[in-house]
Specification:
single chain, about 325 residues, alpha+beta, 10 helices
Length: about 325
C-alpha cells in the first residue's frame, strides 16, 4: 500500500460519515445480503466512446490508402501501403483492446455483502471469483488520476494482504460514486459499513435506498440505459437538454456495451446459500422501485431522442461536406 492509501484507511466499527448514501449502487437489499454494482457501472460504455472513433478513423485511413494504391497499382505504392499498414497495426490493436474493456464482457460485476455470515463475494473482471471474510478485508479510499484532466477521483477499495509480507494479494473496488468525489466515496463506505456492522443496519440502509438497479438476472433495458446515462447530469434539466448531442454518444456506447455483454453468474453454492431469502418490509429489489415522474423518465428520453437526431444530422452533414470535397 502506498503512502496515500495508508493515510486514508477506513476503520471498521467506526463511523466515517454523517450522511451515508448508496449513490445508485444497490441491486438488491435484504436481511441476508446487500448486492451492489461495481465501480465501472455508472460510466459503462466510456471505453467504447474512445475506441469506436479510433477504430473508425483507422479503418478509414486503411481504405483511403488501399483505394489510392489500387488506382496507382505500382510496386512503390504497394510497398508504401504495406508500410502504412504495419505502422497502423499497433494502433488498431490498441483500439480493439480498448473496445473489449467493456464490449463482450459482463453487463456488470456484482459485489455481495453477506450480513449474517460476515463475508464478501465478488465476480471480478478477470472472470475470477472472490470470497473473503469481512474482517480480513482492509479498506481505504484510493486516489486515481484522470488521464485527460489529471484531476483526482476517489473510490472505496478493499485489499487482501499477505499477513507475513504485507504484500497485496488481491484487491476489489467496493464502491465508486459517479463523479468520484472524496466525500461521496466516504459516504458510500459508511452505507456499506452500517449494513454489515450495526444492529439495525439493514433497516437503516433500506430506508436510504430509493432505487434498485433493474439489472439482476436481466440486461439493462434501453429505457433504463437512457435514464441511467442522463442521471449523471440530473437534476440540472436544462444542462441535460443542452448537452444531449454529446451525452447520447456515451449512452449509445453504453447500450452497445450492455447488448454485447453477458449476464454475471454467481457460483451455484452462492445461489443455494441465498436461495430461501425471507422478504420483509425492508427488503428491496428493482420491482419495488416507485414509478418515475416526468423529469426522471420522460424528460431524459426526450433529451435522448433530440440529442440523437442532432448528432446524426451533424454526422451526415460532415459526411456530405467531405463527399463534396472529392467531387
Amino acid at each position: 500500500m502506498n503512502e496515500y492509501e495508508l493515510s486514508n484507511v477506513l476503520i471498521k466499527g467506526k463511523k466515517a460519515h454523517d450522511a451515508p448514501n448508496d449513490h445508485l449502487s444497490v441491486v438488491e437489499i435484504n436481511s441476508d445480503y446487500l448486492e451492489m454494482v461495481d465501480r465501472w457501472y455508472a460510466h459503462k460504455g466510456h471505453s467504447l466512446l474512445y475506441a469506436i472513433p479510433l477504430l473508425a478513423l483507422l479503418l478509414f485511413v486503411i481504405i483511403l490508402f488501399f483505394t489510392a494504391t489500387l488506382e496507382k497499382n505500382e510496386i512503390e505504392a504497394w510497398y508504401f501501403f504495406s508500410g502504412m499498414t504495419v505502422f497502423i497495426l499497433p494502433f488498431l490493436y490498441f483500439g480493439i483492446r480498448l473496445f473489449l474493456l467493456e464490449g463482450f464482457k459482463k453487463t456488470y460485476y456484482p459485489i455481495r455483502f453477506d450480513r449474517k455470515k460476515q463475508e464478501v463475494y465478488a465476480i471480478l473482471p478477470s472472470d475470477d471469483f472472490l470470497k473473503i471474510s469481512w474482517h480480513d478485508l482492509n479498506i481505504h479510499v484510493a486516489e486515481n488520476k484522470q488521464s485527460v484532466t489529471l484531476s483526482s477521483f476517489y473510490e472505496v477499495r478493499g485489499f487482501i494482504l499477505d499477513n507475513e509480507t504485507g504484500v497485496i494479494k488481491q484487491s476489489i473496488t467496493l464502491g465508486y460514486p459517479a463523479w468520484g468525489e472524496y466525500d461521496d466515496a466516504v459516504s458510500l463506505w459508511e452505507f456499506i459499513r452500517i449494513y454489515m456492522e450495526e444492529k439495525n443496519g439493514y433497516e437503516k440502509c433500506s430506508e436510504i435506498v430509493k432505487v434498485c438497479m433493474p439489472i439482476k438476472e436481466r440486461k439493462e433495458s434501453l429505457r433504463f440505459s437512457i435514464i441511467r446515462g442522463m442521471a449523471l447530469l440530473a437534476p440540472n434539466y436544462a444542462l441535460q437538454f443542452l448537452s444531449s448531442p454529446i451525452t447520447v454518444l456515451f449512452i449509445w456506447c453504453r447500450i452497445l456495451s450492455i447488448k454485447t455483454s453477458q449476464l454475471p453468474v454467481w457460483p451455484e453454492w452462492v445461489n443455494l446459500q441465498h436461495k430461501d431469502i425471507v422478504r420483509d418490509e425492508y427488503s428491496k429489489q428493482s420491482k419495488d422501485n416507485t414509478e418515475n415522474n416526468f423529469w426522471e423518465e420522460t424528460w431524459p428520453v426526450i433529451c435522448f431522442v433530440v440529442g440523437s437526431l442532432i448528432s446524426l444530422a451533424l454526422i451526415l452533414w460532415a459526411g456530405y461536406k467531405y463527399w463534396l470535397m472529392y467531387q
